[in-house]
Amino acid sequence: MSGPGETSVHDAVGGGPFFTDLVERFYAGVEGDPLLRPLYPEDLTEAKRHLALFLTQYWGGPTTYSDERGHPRLRMRHLPFVITEAERDAWLRHMHAALDAVVAERAVEPDVDARLRDYFDRAADFLVNARR
Predict the structure, then answer these.
(1) What's the predicted TM-score (pTM) here?
(2) Where are the alpha helices (DSSP H) in the chain?
(3) How far apart are the first and last CA of the chain?
(4) Residue whose C-alpha is closest to residue 6's, from 59, 53, 56, 54
(5) pLDDT (tens digit, 9 = 90+) per residue, 80-127?
(6) DSSP state of 98
(7) How far apart, in whole angstroms, are the C-alpha atoms of residue 52 and residue 108?
(8) What whole-number percentage of the chain has pLDDT above 70?
(9) In angstroms, how far is CA 11 from the centroid of its own chain?
(10) Nearest in space to 27 (alpha carbons), one of 50, 57, 11, 10
């Protein structure tokens, strides 16, 4: 997200392809994670598409996500799943690993990288809905 006259994160990272690559790498980690994998459908195609569209829109790109799915309602969409600190930590581990790779390959500016990481950290904390 950005203010008037500011370059959006979407534009700063080169648009939708950045988020598609990020999501692909993220889900590559999720696929082999015994804690997270059961939370996702067998076929990850739509989950990947939805996350890439959401991130693209959130960071200043086209509104395809909302056009197709309505308001993101992140907490509501995640309520059916038990998300404890363990799931949060596993999710963040895979997202940070994906960011490490994509940010390095695309030479993303450190301030943009920091904004992305801060968002993911806060969003993951927000979605915790249970304790073990």
Answers:
(1) 0.92
(2) 9-12, 16-31, 45-58, 64-69, 74-78, 85-106, 110-127
(3) 34
(4) 59
(5) 999 999 999 999 999 999 999 999 999 999 999 999 999 999 999 999
(6) H
(7) 18
(8) 96
(9) 17
(10) 50
Structure tokens at 71: 């308001």
In angstroms, the CA 97 to CA 81 distance is 23
- ∠ CA(13), CA(67), CA(58), 5° rounding? 30
Give residue for tokens 């939708």. Answer: 16
Cβ neighbours of residue 82 closer than 8 Å, sequence gap 6 or more:
129, 130
For residue 125 the two structure tokens come to: 């904390």
DSSP structure class, residue 61: S
Question: What is the set of domains in the chain, with CATH numbers?
Answer: 13-127 (1.10.490.10)
**Is 52 in contact with 58 (CB distance < 8 Å)?**
no
